[in-house]
Structures are given as structure tokens and as C-alpha cells.
Write a structure and sequence with these properties.
single chain, alpha+beta, two-stranded antiparallel ribbon, about 10% strand
Length: about 90
């Protein structure tokens, strides 16, 4: 699950960065291109909704990484050191 979460984080980050870098020109209609390939022509509402979808995917990846880290932290019981003069003496 950790690998899947990290993969989602990296993929959405890379895609968002490439999409922003390649589409800095503005207008009423946006032709979205990534790595020289035109993906779609979107209006402002479609660009906003795709940003929401990317943020949701990013948060799902972040949640997967966080839950895996918390699960690993809780999985190992702590060993207590015997205190001097205690019952283990």
C-alpha cells in the first residue's frame, strides 16, 4: 500500500507539473498538452474540475502513505527496560 500511495503521489505531482508548465497561455478555451501531445480542449469549468480530481487522487495517495506509516508504527510492541530495584531484580 505504501508503494501504491507513493506512486499516486508522484504521478499526480508529475502530471500536474507538466500540465501547468506546458499550458501557461490563457484564453477562453484551453488546449491541454503534455509532452507535446494534445490531450483535450477544455473550458474554465472543465479545467477547475480536473484540478479537483487531481487533488482528490493526490489526497488518496497521501492517505494511503499515512495509514501505512501509522500501521507500521503500531505493529511493533515496545520493549520496556527493567528498572533498577524493580520487580525484575
Amino acid at each position: 500500500m505504501l508503494i501504491l500511495g507513493l506512486l499516486l503521489l508522484a504521478a499526480t505531482g508529475a502530471f500536474t507539473g507538466l500540465a501547468i508548465a506546458g499550458n501557461l497561455s490563457g484564453g477562453p478555451e484551453y488546449t491541454v498538452s503534455v509532452l507535446g501531445q494534445d490531450i483535450a480542449t477544455m473550458n474554465t469549468l472543465a479545467v477547475f474540475c480536473s484540478g479537483l480530481a487531481l487533488a482528490l487522487i493526490f489526497c488518496a495517495g497521501l492517505s494511503a502513505v499515512a495509514s501505512t506509516a501509522a500501521h507500521r508504527r503500531r505493529g511493533r510492541p515496545r520493549k520496556r527496560a527493567a528498572r533498577p530495584g524493580g520487580p525484575g531484580r
